[in-house]
Amino acid sequence: MSEPAMNLKMFVVPLMMLGINQAGIDINTEENKLKIQIAFASATAFTFLLYLVVALRVWLKGDTAKTLKVSEKQLTGENAGEEIMVEYNYKDYDLKQIRTKLTTAVMGIAITGGIHYKWGMVHPLLIQSVLQPMNALGDPLAKIWLMGADDSQGANKRPFAAEKPPSMFSGLAAAADPKKEEKEAGKERKARGAANKSTVKRRIKD
């Protein structure tokens, strides 16, 4: 299995949040909140629709003749926790990957929605509105079954390389407070200055 290439998608969220901050856009107005909520709902619907279309194509045209072996962790039984080799045909492997992706998507949506509902934070919705379709369109399954990509080499070759998608939390700190790092550095400088003054006073007394 080839090593995943450098994920350029990880820079999208920080750059997007930086652009919003630099432009002085207030995403917490009622009008912008509504727009972001609609964008989030649309991105979620697009992602699920994409995977459902892929699943349908795999179900109808999936290859049951070709097989591959993948290493999986045994979850139950006497060998629980151990890595074992499991053989799949291409059709079953692709369907299993789709189920995993949909499960991950549901968890992400639940977390994002929960954060927005509980604390009223808009940034997670905005970030996920970009990440959901971006990750779905970049998935090897979408490239193979919807874009006709070659599945015999590179990142589209089965078994797919484990790629860590960009996190929705990667831009939240900067979005919440763009000058946070500067403030923290200032606090550290003040603390060091106070410590130095205290040391000087003790030396004078001695």
Automatic annotation (TrEMBL):
Single GO cellular component term: mitochondrion
BP GO terms, sorted: protein targeting to ER
Protein name (database record): Inorganic phosphate transporter
Record bears the keyword Transmembrane: yes
Region: Disordered, residue numbers: 156-206
Transmembrane is among the record's keywords: yes
Keywords, sorted A to Z: Membrane, Transmembrane, Transmembrane helix
Transmembrane segments: 39-60
Leader sequence segment: none
InterPro entries: SND3_fun
Bias kind Basic and acidic residues: ranges: 177-188
